[in-house]
Amino acid sequence: MQTNLSDSAKTLSRADEAEQILRSCVHCGFCNATCPTYQLLGNELDGPRGRIYLIKQMLEGEPVTQKTQLHLDRCLTCRNCETTCPSGVSYHTLLDIGRAELERRIERPVSERLLREGLRRVIPHPAVFGALLKTGRVMRPFLPAALGRKIPRRSVASADGRTARPLPRPAPRHPRTMLMLEGCVQPTLSPNTNAAAARVLDRLGIGIVDAKRAGCCGATDYHLNAQEAGLARARRNIDAWWPAIEAGAEAIVQTASGCGAFVKEYGHLLRHDPRYASKAQRVSELARDLVEVLANEPLDRLQAHGLPHEAAGERRRIAFHCPCTLQHAQKLGGAVESILQRLGFELTAVPDAHLCCGSAGTYSITQPELAQRLRENKLDALESGAPERIVTANIGCQMHLDGGADMPEAHSRKSPRERAPVHPITHWIELVEASLP
After folding, report:
1. Residues 6+ positions from 158 with CB-CB distance below 8 Å
2. Phi/psi at 427 (nearest 5 deg)?
3. Which end of the chain is more exposed for a tag (fewer CB within 10 A), N or C?
């Protein structure tokens, strides 16, 4: 694609990167075939190729409006288009550059600015998020229905169905150690997930060491166009993890694939920072989704038996929702499925498994109508094989899909087998741990 960046655009810090990405696009349109928003809306400007043209026009000095912003906001950043693209276009990077420039040039309505600022003030702060969630649950009956449905009724129970509270973690007792990113909302909404991961890793001879000063990965800020704030969080995490890395920690484990995808970008995003470039690159090299860690371990030590028949009469038929951040961003599609099959679980087929569920970080809040349509499509696909349990690998997807039970249409939706939604939806590592003797 030919480009002619404006003089103003050439002064941007990432102008060369944007131009290189634009020139790599051959505008073939293959990306539209797998774009969830293009499939729903059928508008060229709501597909990757159209959005690339909008960013190109903006960087070439063409006028932009709030309509331009709307089309870019509607992108889920699921990166399905990158998996499809034959030219290797780094679409998500171009989108980040375009959104940042658009944010500078177009002022959002007050309501949007307040919503985005509110999300940034709440989600990255576990204590604030937890306190507001408790208040919201108490006030839920008195809130407008549309707002009330965004507040989860409960924290997700563990895979044994008995408790939502985290069971004790083993203290580090092995020569092999790893760090773990705790996350922002996961400790409140699914508190047993990281504890289950720590217990499974302990069985494999790996101890989890704590880094108390580590916090939010920075993705929430960054993808709400507060990019410098997101990078500041990345730097704080690097500082918090560095002593353990120097002491020999083998990896930084993420149980939320959305966080993992962003941590793996630290090296690229901070490559021009003279103080942090080399450390950021090292952190990205050590970042591992939990499935990457388990894939390299002797799983026969776990002696999993699937879901025991005597536990609530359940079978071993599982549907796995592979988050976009796992299959498209981290290129780990099929990895969790492989481990579950090795451990004795039977996986049901999931039609259109490559499509986004509509969670996409804060997308389900900023674009609720599109997110709801995508969720209904995804739940129908997941339930079509009549599974006894649905599991996933990202807390955002987990809560978004689990929230489908609260929607009025969930009670009338008919899957091919006319089944009620399978709930609650849990993280796959909790299913694995619940199956261990």
Report:
1. 164, 167, 192, 196, 426, 430, 434
2. -75, 145
3. C
Q: Is 250 exposed, middle or buried (0-12, 13-18, 19+ CB in 10 A)?
A: middle
Q: Is the dihedral of CA 325, 326, 331, 334 positive or negative?
A: negative
What's residue 146's pLDDT? Answer: 59
Q: Do 437 and 311 contact (CB within 8 A), yes or no? A: no
Cα distance between residue 239 and residue 217, in whole Å: 12
Q: What is the DSSP string of 366-412?
A: HSHHHHHHHHHHHHHHHHTT--SEEEES-HHHHHHHHGGGGSGGGGT
Strand, helix or coil for residue 251: coil
Q: What span, in angstroms and rounded, lies between the C-alpha atoms of 431 and 287? A: 23
User: How confident is the chain (437 residues) per 10-residue block, as mean pLDDT?
Assistant: 89 93 94 96 96 95 94 97 96 95 92 91 86 78 65 57 66 92 90 94 94 92 93 97 96 96 97 97 97 92 56 68 97 96 92 96 93 95 93 94 62 44 82 87
Rounded Cα gap, residues 118 and 371, in angstroms: 19
pLDDT score, position 137: 76
55 burial class (0-12, 13-18, 19+ CB within 10 angstroms)? buried
Q: Which two tokens stand for residue 241?
A: 């993890």
Which pLDDT belongs to residue 86? 95
Considering only CA atoms, which of 255, 329, 391, 291 is closest in space to residue 83?
A: 329
pLDDT value of position 302: 78
**Burial (CB count within 10 angstroms: exposed 0-12, middle 13-18, buried 19+), residue 41:** middle
**Domains with residue ranges and CATH for the chain:** 7-105 (1.10.1060.10), 111-148 (no CATH), 176-295 (no CATH), 302-434 (3.40.50)
| DSSP track, 57-92 | HHHTT----HHHHHHHHT-----HHHHH-TT---HH
pLDDT for residue 418: 45
Q: Could you identify the residue written with the tokens 């776990």?
A: 302
Length of the chain: 437
Sign of the CA dihedral running 73, 29, 268, 283: positive
DSSP 193-234: HHHHHHHHHHHTTEEEEP-TT----SHHHHHTT-HHHHHHHH
Q: Is 3 helix (H, G, I), strand (E, B) or coil?
A: coil
Q: For residue 347, give the H/E element and its range.
A: strand 346-347
In this prediction, residue 424 carries a pLDDT of 80
Its pTM stands at 0.89
